[in-house]
Amino acid sequence: MPNPRANRVAERIHEIVASLVTNRLKDPRLELVTVTDVRVTGDLQHATVFYTAYGDERKLRDAGRALNRAKGNIRSHVGRQLGLRLTPTIEFTADALPETARSLEDALAAARHRDAEIAKSAEGAAPAGDADPYKKPRDVEEGEAADEASADGDDASDGDALESGEAFEASFESSENDQAEGVDEA
């Protein structure tokens, strides 16, 4: 479970360091530096400050050197403004999030390009089987229903089926009568 006090201290350090980088530090290598995140250990003894710099790898490396050079000045300002008994040590780390986002964007662009190629090749293609492979129920007319029933051997005019149904009902009624008489005798 995250420590709420460590989260509050991390947010405050983020505000202080971002303000120092943009307003107080006069190093030209820090002009395009953005503080992205701060993480503090549970005992509040160590803070890791994540940053990004607009530009290429060389500018990011130069920004890291400038931040490490000003680390003591930044830590003393953080200590004065936090009011903690012990000021946390500060470590600056280049944030890998922009590179990860860039690689994800490249992968998504490649996938979009492949999808466009597939859609272009599928424009003139016809389906291999039926255009609609799912069978739909069809409406059966009365004349067709009688024809299908006679083809199956289920002719409604056949008297044998009717007689067997009547015989079943008669035997069912007689068994009910026998049971009812047995209950009355007891």
Provide a descriptive summary of the structure in words:
This protein is mainly alpha-helical. Among the domains are: 96 residues, GMP Synthetase, Chain A, domain 3, CATH 3.30.300.20; 31 residues. Helix content is 59%, strand content 12%. It is built from six helices and three strands, in the order αββααβααα. It has a three-stranded mixed beta sheet. Strand 1 and strand 2 form a beta hairpin. Helix 1 crosses helix 3. The longest helix has 27 residues. It starts with a helix and ends with a helix. The model has no long low-confidence stretch (mean pLDDT 78).
List keywords for this structure.
RbfA_dom_sf; KH_dom-like_a/b; 186 residues; ribosomal small subunit binding; 3-stranded mixed sheet; GMP Synthetase, Chain A, domain 3
